[in-house]
């Protein structure tokens, strides 16, 4: 993985954790098993590497299906109702004109 990919993954997982309302230290619990063997060049068997990969993608999948703190849109974004305008019969155009 390139550094850009790693930074992107860190940003996405951290923003998802923030959206859910979970503490940010969980980011390191999710990503440490994935990145520590690579950073410190720890030789692992192929089965362990595949297990770590499945754990990582499974954790991302679980995070994707957990709803955020407030799934409903806030009330301040509701559209205002138009104000009724009184017009004389046959009046077109701006209101202030005769």
Radius of gyration: 27 Å
Fraction of residues in β-strands:
under 5%
Give the uncertain stretches in residue-range form: none
Structure classification:
mainly alpha
Indicate the overall shape.
rod-shaped
The total of helices stands at: 3
Describe this entry's structure for a reader.
This protein has 98 residues and is mostly helical. Helix content is 53%, strand content 0%. The chain has 3 helices and no strands. The chain has helices spanning 3-20, 26-39, 46-65. It is rod-shaped and about 85 Å long. The termini are far apart. The mean pLDDT is 77.
List the topology elements.
Blueprint: H1 3-20, H2 26-39, H3 46-65
What's a quick, concise take on this entry?
The chain has helices spanning 3-20, 26-39, 46-65. With 98 residues, the chain is mainly alpha-helical. Helix 2 runs antiparallel to helix 3.
Output the keywords.
98 residues; mainly alpha; rod-shaped
């Amino acid at each position: 993985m390139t550094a850009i990919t790693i930074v992107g993954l860190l940003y996405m997982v951290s923003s998802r954790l923030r959206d859910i309302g979970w503490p940010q230290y969980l980011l390191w619990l999710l990503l440490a098993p994935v990145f520590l063997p690579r950073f410190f060049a720890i030789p692992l068997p192929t089965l362990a590497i595949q297990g770590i990969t499945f754990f990582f993608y499974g954790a991302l999948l679980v995070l994707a299906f957990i709803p955020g703190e407030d799934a409903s849109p806030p009330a301040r974004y509701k559209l205002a109702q138009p104000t009724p305008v009184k017009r004389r019969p046959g009046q077109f155009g701006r209101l202030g004109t005769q």
